[in-house]
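ok so I'm stuck.
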Amino acid sequence: MSIPKRLPLALLLTTPVLAGLLAGCAKDKNAITAVGGSIGQEIQRTSCPAVGVPAYTGDVTLFDPPASREARAIDIVADITDVKASCDESDPTAAILTSHVSFRVDARRSSAHGARDVVLPYFAVVLHGGTAVASKSISRVSVHFDDGKLTASADGQATGTVSRADATLPANIRARLIRKRNASDADASVDPMADPSVRAALAKASFDLLVGFQLTQEQLAYNATR
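replied:
not stuck anymore, here's the structure
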């Protein structure tokens, strides 16, 4: 499932724009599939955090010399790919839900001369309600280039935890979303998502686990404006 979102540029500089989310959780009774009104808008969610890579943080470009931004100075380009998530919420007694994320970093260098190791920092952020940072960690992935090779890959991983209680919709909101309506009902054509209280409850119970390269302000600006 892909859920594009946008955040203000000021927030982007610390917790960047959300580009895509991948659902990766086992379902339980807290999982809902709701169809809103006669427009047939489908909403699917679980208590597990959605996982994705924020826009502008899925790749990093290193220059030599570092201060240059000319194409001929590009030294290494790396991308985060093959993002996969897993999270099991099937145990109703578990108060904390842990989401595990794995991904691959594909890198390319401009010169194949000599063996080389490059260490790239990346972050894992748990975002609450689309804007509030609940937790953040920084890790590093080492990419090794063999002599004579222009490309290399490495694997990375991250985890994030959320409270099941905080990520579970209130019973009255859940009931409104999953209630089946007949064409003869007075509110058959009314989308429950049009109600600000429903949208607010969904936002309050929503968590995202985002991974991306830990960029400098200059690197982020380069990605956002190139």
